[in-house]
């Protein structure tokens, strides 16, 4: 496990660094190696903020808490993360994944328009690379909830088609299947 601790708007503290590293050990049993943990501890006026990002085996889990004490912020964010990881582990344990399907990679292009009244050509303003993992629709919904994303691109493990699942405004989910029928 690789843990990095970054301090913002405050002096670095070995005691805080060690405390954050010890707290991460609680979720290590639920995750598969390699595990990367990035802490961002900061102080803004009277708020103490603990922000953590955990990347393990293709999964990214993020959490942030704000309190009046940095130690309690670390405790609260790790309680939240541990609950998410435990729930995810249980769902995966109860879910069977079809083998033999190789993951793909894709690029997501985000288009933006410059100015509301001007007539301009849309241009690519951001390109992100995604690792498309084979999974079922249920697992994709679970990933959206876990990562707090609005959509996810994945390979459907049943049909081997590339699918997009997205969160609708009414709280339900929509599914775009690229396969032909």
Could you characterize the architecture of this molecule?
With 181 residues, the chain is α+β, with helices and mostly antiparallel strands. The protein has two domains: 2-93, Double Stranded RNA Binding Domain, CATH 3.30.160.100; 104-177, 2-Layer Sandwich (SHC Adaptor Protein). The protein has three helices and ten strands; from the N terminus they run E-H-E-E-E-H-E-E-E-H-E-E-E. A four-stranded mixed β-sheet has the order 1-2-3-4. Helix 1 packs parallel to helix 2 (70-93) and helix 2 packs antiparallel against helix 3.
Topology of this protein?
Elements: E1 2-8, H1 14-28, E2 35-44, E3 47-56, E4 59-67, H2 70-93, E5 104-112, E6 123-132, E7 134-135, H3 137-147, E8 151-156, E9 162-167, E10 173-177
Parallel strand pairs: 1-2, 7-8
Antiparallel strand pairs: 2-3, 3-4, 5-6, 8-9, 9-10
Helix pairs in contact: 1-2, 2-3
């Amino acid at each position: 496990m690789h843990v990095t601790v970054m301090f913002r708007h405050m002096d670095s503290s070995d005691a805080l660094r060690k405390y954050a590293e010890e707290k991460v050990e609680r979720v290590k049993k639920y995750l598969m190696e390699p595990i990367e943990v990035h802490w961002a501890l900061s102080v803004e006026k009277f708020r103490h903020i603990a922000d953590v990002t955990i990347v393990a085996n293709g999964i990214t889990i993020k959490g942030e808490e704000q309190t009046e004490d940095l130690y309690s912020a670390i405790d609260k964010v790790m309680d939240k993360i541990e609950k998410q990881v435990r729930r995810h582990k249980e769902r995966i344990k109860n879910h069977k994944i079809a083998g033999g399907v190789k993951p793909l990679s894709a690029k997501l292009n985000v288009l933006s328009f410059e100015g509301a009244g001007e007539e301009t050509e849309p241009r690519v303003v951001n390109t992100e690379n995604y690792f498309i993992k084979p999974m079922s629709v249920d697992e994709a919904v679970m990933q959206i909830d876990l990562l707090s994303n609005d959509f996810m691109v994945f390979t459907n493990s049943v049909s081997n088609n590339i699918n997009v699942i997205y969160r609708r405004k009414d709280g339900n989910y929509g599914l775009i299947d690229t396969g032909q029928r």
